[in-house]
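ARCHIVE CARD
Drawer: 12
Card no.: 0347
Subject: one protein chain, sequence and derived structure
Cross-reference: see card 0346
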Amino acid sequence: MNPANVDPALLVPGAVIDMTPAWVPEGICACGCGRETSTIQYADASKGLVRGAWRTFCKGHHNRVGRPHFEVTDAGCWEWLRACGGSRGNTYARWNGQFAHRWFYEVMVGPIPEGLCIDHVCENKRCVNPEHLEPVTNRENLRRWREGRS
């Protein structure tokens, strides 16, 4: 599901939104991660496996279907509920192989201008609400970060 197609009436505090696509192209993981799946190496009629056909999910991704993607908080943040990664204590939500906040911004607002990064105005690194994201220079982003945590 494209977040731009979410009914705004659903985006109330406590709402949980699942963006798992209803239809996924063959060879792409059905959990919504966007990764390419492998082909089946052996046939097994009892399990419906056909040699050479694409698998529905990447290994281990079958348990992701039905899990929500983000929850709307009282502050209006769309807090990411799926995988996060980062270094040095930073937590960044990931979606389709890139940072989730960048993906949401590009889908719902437009391309990020070259040379700019995305700042979480709400200071919630798990927030993917485009209204809380602003393209700024890296210098400005670092200045805001230092100012907010002094």
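Annotation on reverse: Residues 10-68 form one domain. The first helix runs from residue 100 to 108.
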